[in-house]
Each structure stands twice: as C-alpha cells, then as structure tokens.
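Board notes (copied after class):
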Amino acid sequence: MSYLFRRLISGREEPGIRLIVFDFDGTLADTRELLLRIVSKHLLSFEISLTKNMVKFFGNVPLWDYVSLAGVPSKLVRSVHSAIVDDFMEEYHKIKPCKNLMTLKSLNIRKVIVSNNQTSFIEKSLDFLKANFFEGVYGADKFENKVIMIDSLHRKYGLLPEEIIYVGDKDVDVDVARDVGCYSVIIAGKSAWSSRADILKKKPDYALTDLGKLSEVIAQLNAEQLPAI
C-alpha cells in the first residue's frame, strides 16, 4: 500500500515529515570520551577491560544490560550501574555539542530524543548545552527498546512511519529505523560512534556529515511525498 494511499485513508490532508526522533550520544552530544572513561574505570575494578568489540557495542543496549553483558556479577549490576550514572551526572559539563546542534532549534517539526542513555543525564546535558528544544526525552529507563518506543510515539501522535525520521550515529541505528518503517538519517561525523564505512555498509536512507544538513533532507522528503499533478 503506497504512502499516499495510506495518508488518504488516515485522513491526513498534507504529506510530509512530522516527527524527528534523535539518538543522543554521538548524534546530539559528543560524549564518547567521557562515557568510555567512566565505564572503563568501573569495569576495571572487576578486571574487565574494554576491548575493541566492547567499545563498538557500547550504546547498542541500555547501560544496565551493557554492564551485565560485560561480565559484572548479576548481584552487583545494580550498584555498578548506579555508580556509573552518578559519575555521569557529576561530569556532564565535560560533554560538547555535536556540530551544528543549534540548527535544530529552527526546525518547525516535533522533535524528541530516544536514547539508551539515562533520561536524567540527557536532560541535565541539554540544560548545559542550552538545547532545550525537544518535546520529549526518553532515556533507557523509560522504554524496553528503541523500536517499541518509536512505535509507541507514532501511535501517540497519530502518524504513519513514513512521516518519521530517525537520526542516529551508529550502523545499528539503520536497523532501528527499518524495523520501525521510518527514514534513517545517520550523522557520520567525528562524534559518531560508528565509522563512516560501517554506516555506509548498512545503506541508510541518508548519511550526513553533520546536523546542519538535516533541513535539506526534510525538504527533499517533503517534496518527494507531494502527489504528482
């Protein structure tokens, strides 16, 4: 069933992108160095060193699951997770904005964050970065997984998947968008957690160098969704 037909039977008058869902780490904020240093410190207390594969996997699942999968004894996962989050909250001021973060403020489209980081850390970071222009912030403490969370948002707002863009910075973010049925936009800049080569292998709908290019993508998608005259 085509998007235009789905739009017509849903009662939507005008086509276009109506929701942008953003990842946080590596997409909006450059947190890589800070997060890896803090997590590495706590894992080393269990003689667990971050391998290359562990670094690559970081952020694919909520922190609680990551700590458990890394090998921390199950009875200590809660305390280690809490200690890591406490360190995040103390050092939030060391993060930096991703390139052209503030250009998102002028996008007149509903914007939310869905991240495997903690909601409290994201909100405190947004305050620090003066980037409080997101309608909702959903950290891993608020959902089971990203696909389920984004699905719930498109139902909440009465949208079709084709009216949603998911913006991330990792190759696995392409899979998230595909599972939802929305467009994938991957920011393959210097703050990204995946290499540009790995991102391109997944064939996202768009791979951008920075957030400043997002408005052009939206304009293109909106134009493509207009019915032919």
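Comment from the instructor: The radius of gyration is 18 Å. The mean pLDDT is 91.
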